[in-house]
Amino acid sequence: MRVFRLPLLVLLLLLPVSSPWKSSMEELFGKIASRRAPASVQEEAAKGVLERLLPAHLSSFRFEIDSKGICGESICFRISNIDNSSRDAAEILIEGTTAVELSSGLHWYLKYWTGAHISWDKTGGVQIASVPSPGSLPRVDAQSVKVERPVPWNYYQNVVTSSYSFVWWDWKRWEKEIDWMALQGVNLPLAFTGQEAIWQKVFQGFNVSSEDLYGFFGGPAFLAWSRMGNLHGWGGPLSQNWLDQQLKLQKRILSHMVELGMTPVLPSFSGNVPAVFRKLFSTANITRLGDWNTVDGDPRWCCTYLLGPSDPLFVEVGKAFIKQQIKEYGDVTDIYNCDTFNENSPPTNDPTYISSLGAAVYEAMSKGNRDAVWLMQALLHSVPIGKMIVLDLFADVKPIWKKSSQFYGVPYVWCMLHNFGDNIEMYGILDAISSGPIAARTSYNSTMVGVGMCMEGIEQNPVVYELMSEMAFRKQEVQVEEWLKNYSYRRYGSSVLAIEEAWKILYHTIYNCTDGIADHNKDYIVEFPDIYPFLEGSQPPQRRIKDLLLVKKNHRFSLKETSNDLPQPHLWYSTKEVISALKLFLDGGNDLSESLTYRYDLVDLTRQALSKFANQVYLDVITSYQRNDAKSLDLNSRKFLELIKDIDTLLASDDNFLLGTWLESAKSLAASQNERRQYEWNARTQVTMWYDNTRTNQSKLHDYANKFWSGLLKDYYLPRASTYFSYLFRSLQENKYFQLEEWREEWISYSNKWQAGDGLYAVSAVGDAFGISKSLFEKYLS
User: Which domain-ending residue is among 383, 402, 433?
Assistant: First the structure.
């Protein structure tokens, strides 16, 4: 199952001048501006970003919040030379509307005047060796350069990013992420951490005990879906230690966001209540929702409870939650998120019910904060006029603004979704990113007011996120091929012709997915088919593949079959061309092997090429079995298993592809041995089985959050494939039906034991990434 956040997300923002709601929106935007931290606080915050990034250059830059009106009515930054500077004095002045613009201006200068590069640590980190020493910084052209935002907002996060990517973060990692947001120009981030502690205090006011909440909150790695009312109790309960530490962390997160001039988006009440509410409020209108992806409807986590919108208790609870957040955090925002039916179905399709629910949610918000703004996933007429903007969440692939007459006049944010389940897969649509926001903003009667990044998981495909971030400041389309040449130079710190040529190929292949298919990273290694192998004459006819044939067509591999039972990994490019790009990467890497950014890209590209090759080998295994060819079956199954081992060795050579890092970060938050076991189970389960299973039925979400991580391949994906292949051999040798149920039982038992395991995994890289990549290229791809 592929889970989507589709496609409407609503928030209040500044509208275009032509909007009939202009006056009310200007009033709101004025309130947001008045809430910002004082100029001196923001300037110090921008200096803090610089100090953590380039401590030796702290005196080389001067930051000033715009008080001279240089931005006019726009939001901007201006980079200027400071004349007559000595070695110890500032050389470059950066002015801007907020500290976000100051940080963005710093990043812009470092990129386009010093050739620096900034990405997440887990995608190679920063390349700042190219930045000249203090006193020698390059001067900008014509004394100053001013860059304006074409639209006011740059939105960031998805409601599930908090579970797939942020769940185990401490303050040090959060501080680095918020710095990254500021450098990329993000000024409207979700801030969902710690809300369970707020709910605990709110529910206590309604006579709900801490013990009553044990079955309500999900475990740490599943909180996003618990918050959305998809499940309850799975992976829990939450300890008081977790609740307290996350609340403390959230306060630091919000403080840093606010001092940088960001507008955080906080959660609000959707109607999701603990089961005990039925006993405490026996006359309340409480409905049990339907099943969400359980195997057998186990009531321990299936089917959450929704308080009816007509019940007076709804507004009471919602108001209390908003008030409690203000009490804990202060007056930091007017914008709140609420998704009552995100991946859930309402108890009725009656429009009156949906409308009344919208009215109740908004009334609860506004009673808690009279200036409240709703961020939601539906256009509801029951929300007051001027209180919403739509987030075109999947505009990089399926833009809604084109089909809805600019959302029927409602302002919207053009967003890139890009990633599902925090999977590791090289993928993107650079042309859509470069042109899409421009086309939307300049189209007739456009109501676009922002751009955004709404990926389910981060720390992958850095080229995609750097380009998307730049679109917050771009008024014209980017010439992608020229931009990539500059990107390559900045990312690796030097110009290498072979690498530049490789990026040209990647641009037209991996980063040119135009088929509109959203499923990615379904490679057989990480999402192994749970199916019959279709042996002719030994299975029920409807389970057979009568014409399974791997053909080469236009230099890409495709699968022709008469049955749809065998899942096919998504392939949208020529594998031959990508292999040639990998060869260029290797040819140009002799002088870059010490570069962390190059090493990450090389390992990732090698992994990508080998995983696609492994898909072909898996199909050869199935074909061998179908043809009763035991020798070929043995040869190809061994090859597939050897590929898993070799890819594991490759991934082990880079710090950013290690299972151990994920597990150790989970355990580091524990205050007791019980918590330690629970958090590790959460971490292991999310990336494997995900949800519940029976003895012979895997979770419906198994492998949804799969990862190409060393340790996971060797100890999880390898035994799975090996066991399945052993059942294939036995079927041929004994001339019996393939025992799918027996294999499932054996595999699920192994998986559940592994999920509950405590074996240690490496947290540091081992081996020479360049040498391993080169050797695997020669072994499999040359």
Answer: 383
- DSSP reduced 3-state for 442: helix
The candidate with the shortest Cα–Cα distance to 210, out of 231, 240, 247, 233, is: 240
For residue range 470-511, list pLDDT tens digits in order.
999 999 999 999 999 999 999 999 999 999 999 999 999 999
**Angle 162-165-169 from CA coordinates, rounded to 5°:** 85
Of the candidates 492, 495, 505, the one whose C-alpha atom is nearest the C-alpha of residue 426 is: 505
Residues 91-116 pLDDT 10s: 999 999 999 999 999 999 999 999 99
Residues 234 and 373 in one domain: yes
CA distance 286 to 284: 6
**CB-count exposure of residue 380 (10 Å: 0-12, 13-18, 19+):** buried
- Residues 51 and 607: their CA atoms lie apart, in Å, by 35
- Would you say residue 12 lies in a domain? no
Distance from first CA to last CA of the chain, Å, rounded?
A: 36
* H or E, element range at 554: none
Structure-block tokens of residue 40: 């001196």
CB atoms within 10 A of CB 604: 24
What is the rounded distance in angstroms from the CA atom of residue 680 to the CA atom of residue 221? 10
Together in a domain, 450 and 405: yes
SS3 475: coil
Burial 6-36, CB ≥16 within 10 A → b, else e = ebbbbbbbbbbeebebeebbeebeeebeebb
Q: How far apart are CA 557 and CA 658, in angstroms?
A: 30
CB 105, CB 78: distance < 8 Å: yes
Q: What angle do CA 172, 178, 180 make, to 5 degrees?
A: 105
For residue 475, the enclosing domain spans 394-493
Which residues, in sequence order, are CB contacts of 489 under 8 Å at separation 6+? 115, 495
Q: What is the pTM of this model?
A: 0.93
